[in-house]
Amino acid sequence: MAKQATVQLRLLIFVNTQLGNRMSNHTSFSGSRAWLPAKGGTAAVVLAMLLSLFTAGAPATALTAVSSTAAAGSAATTEEAAELLATLPIKGRAPKTGYERALFGPTWADVDRNGRDTRNDILQRDLTELTFTNSVPCKVQSGVLADPYTGSTINFLRGTTTSSAVQIDHVVALSDAWQKGAQQLTTEQRTALANDPLNLQATDGPTNMQKGDGDAATWLPSNKGFRCEYVARQVSVKARYSLWVTQAEHDAIAGILSGCPGQPAPATVGSAAPAPVYYANCDAVRAAGAAPLYADQPGYRAGLDGNSDGVACQ
To answer: 231 near 259, Cβ under 8 Å?
Structure first.
């Protein structure tokens, strides 16, 4: 057993040394990561293979401990946008033929079934000083946007002639996505792309219209301080949905990221407040198994408490 442990220790030292050498020489592969499945995960794979070959009969807990440690390291590692950019295919722009907004699902659907459509999810995430159209915080009535694209402050007021002052931009424009791989996605995948909070940003209406379907080679936010985060989000979205970049787009993104080394490739961008608990009537409360409702519980409102004693739907 002592000999077996010695072999395991030597193998672990060997693997860690080899992986360390490969990580330090990573830039010599011209951005290719084919040899490295995932940061932190390779050690577990290689070590498990070696141990299975040379230490048959070793306690399963040893393998589990090594794999768990490697997995924990992998989960804690944040991908850099420049590294992720290097994994994106570089191709020419495909024809726009056949593109329709409807191919990316209904406009501003409630895809997460939280009682708010996607537009209101993003307004609630990105605006401050929020008010709502009624007592149920689902539709944003007003708020203040610190617009990251322009660096300006915009007062939002819901209305036929005023709502357009704040629009929701697709960070990777849907038409651009269509011309760079989204044609091969399913309708469900395209709907996810169109409603993914990572790909959505509230911004100044005229600025959103000016951007159109431009990519990083043709349009960037006027607020230079936000450009690193902006292109990093584009890289994350394109990687998530298996989209490609053109050479000009790749070079533009790489040029921006060179000015902010270590810029992370985000997996999420904040989150809206959770949808409130709301019951239309006492029948709904009872159907949910929540009756009786007390004044300090989610879902309680005066309209359900007929005698105003602080207990509803008794």
So the answer is: no
